[in-house]
Each structure stands twice: as C-alpha cells, then as structure tokens.
Amino acid sequence: MGEEPFLLVGESYGGYLARGLVRARPEQIAGLALLCPVGRPVPVLERDVPEHEVLRADPELLAGLDPAEAAEYGEVAVVQSAETLARFRADVAPGLAAADRAALQRMLAGWTLSADPESGPAYRKPALIVCGRQDASTGFAELYGLLGHYPRASFAVLDRAGHNLQFEQPVLFEALMEEWLDRVVEGSGAVG
Fold it and tell me: How buried is 39 (Cβ within 10 angstroms: 0-12 exposed, 13-18 middle, 19+ buried)?
C-alpha cells in the first residue's frame, strides 16, 4: 500500500477487515465505504439479521436454472429478475466457484481481528455505510451502532435489497457512492 492516501471500500466480511485497516492507518485512508458489512464478527446464526425474504419473485426464472445455480442465487436474491441474475453470474458466481472452501473454513475458525476496529480514535473522514433492509447475511440493525465512531458517515438502509444490494438497488447505490466520492474530494482540497 505504500504511504500514499487511498480510498477503501469493504463488502461483507471485507467491511469488517476494512474497519480494522482504518483503525491501523486512519491518516492514510482518505475515505471509507462499507457495503453490507459484518457488524459483530460472529456466525450468521448469532447476528441480528432478518429472515430471508424475496420481495420480487420470478418463479419462471428460477425454474429455468440448474438446481445448484437456482439455490445459490435464490438463497440471497431479494429481487429476482433477469438483470439481477446476470449481475449475480458476472459478479458473484465466479468468486463462489473459485473459493477455496477448506481455506475459508480455517479462516472462519479465527476470523475475529485481534483489536476491535472501533477501539481506537473516531474516524473523522468521509464514510458511507450502506445496508440492505432484507440482508439475511449481515443485516443492518447492528451497523447503526457504529455511527458514533464514524462521525462523517452517511448511513443508508435500502429497502428491496439484500446482501447484493449494489445490483438490486443500483440507482440508489450509485447515487450514494457518488455523493461519498464528492465528500472525499471536497475534504481533500482537490478540485473535482
């Protein structure tokens, strides 16, 4: 990473890791965005998450998929459509296929950082925390408690969005990211 300032975006467990990096290098990180981040690093069954709920179902779409793909897509999709399936196939499925399951199991056995990410001084640069209202993986309720540590954070909970909110609510997601980037540029003194 060197010494240059940079922006940091973390998604899911990567959001938890990003918060740990902000604790370690607050001066170097010019802005932080968290997308469906893990709040407390505990197993899914111990998190405050809603039940999986499909708000826009497409049974014909699911019926046309092979059972394995239908299960992977269907277990997280809140908005089932040709568009969200295409994004799932392009953005999520390759990672699932390439994942080293044995390595993931070893990581999950000790995935808590040695220091609580919010145990240091407050992070006073532009931040964004975006959660899906129907995210049955990481939820949204626990994340509200982080706001005291991130006094420059915008916090959004998007309805009709689960753990893949960036393609279930793309217009809102892109608007929030652009606004966050505007705040980062404004705070850096750079002309945007």
Answer: buried
Burial class (CB in 10 A: 0-12, 13-18, 19+), 74: middle
pLDDT in tens, 45-85: 678 899 999 999 999 999 999 999 999 999 999 999 999 99
User: CA of 149: how far to CAs of 39, 71, 119, in Å?
Assistant: 13, 37, 9
Cα 18 to Cα 10: distance, rounded to the nearest angstrom: 5
Domains of the chain (ranges plus CATH)? 6-188 (3.40.50.1820)
Whole-structure pTM value: 0.91
Which class for 68: exposed (0-12), middle (13-18), buried (19 or more C-beta within 10 A)?
Answer: exposed
CA atoms 162, 163, 167, 169: torsion sign: positive
Query: d(Cα 185, Cα 188) in Å, to the nearest integer?
Result: 5
